[in-house]
Amino acid sequence: MTELTTARLRLTPMTVADFEDLCRLWRDPAFTRQIGLPFMLPETVWLRLLRDIGHWQIMGVGNWAIRRREDDAWLGTVGIFDYRRDLVPAFGALEVGWGLVPAFHGQGYAFEAVTEALRYADDDLRLPRTTCMIAPDNAASFRLAAKVGFTPWVEGDLRGEKIQLLERFCK
């Protein structure tokens, strides 16, 4: 499992120590509203965390906790993964995803974390293509995705909900 660092951040593979922080994130209505997913009960967050830990074991990639280096504050998550989503059309490539605690929005942390995850995807994993999906009303994530090189690919359907799928080719 790979830990990554940037000037301000440490990206650490998810562990059970991240559970309480993840619960706070998934209970925050500003976060869940922005990404278009519902509030999550602790047992659902626990299952997601177990999935993320197992993802590293099986796939060699997964979600990282984003921590600020200066004080170890837990800022959110970023990752490279294959969740085998019930998505039409299927991604056909690994997905990149991110989510930040709303209190830390607007400070460049998400850009820094996603940029480092994509550097890892390009330089270390040598992935030819990555994908992401963004809820239609999430303007901030669309701006970030464009800034790091994602372009619109197709409108998708995820369990009956319309979602924008984007793609990025290795630099």
UniProtKB/TrEMBL annotation:
PROSITE patterns membership: GNAT
Cross-referenced Pfam families: Acetyltransf_3
Domain N-acetyltransferase span(s) in chain numbering: 9-167
Molecular function, one GO term: acyltransferase activity, transferring groups other than amino-acyl groups
Entry keyword set: Transferase
Top-level taxon of origin: Bacteria
UniProt protein name: Acetyltransferase GNAT family protein
Organism: Asticcacaulis biprosthecium C19
Record lineage: Bacteria, Pseudomonadati, Pseudomonadota, Alphaproteobacteria, Caulobacterales
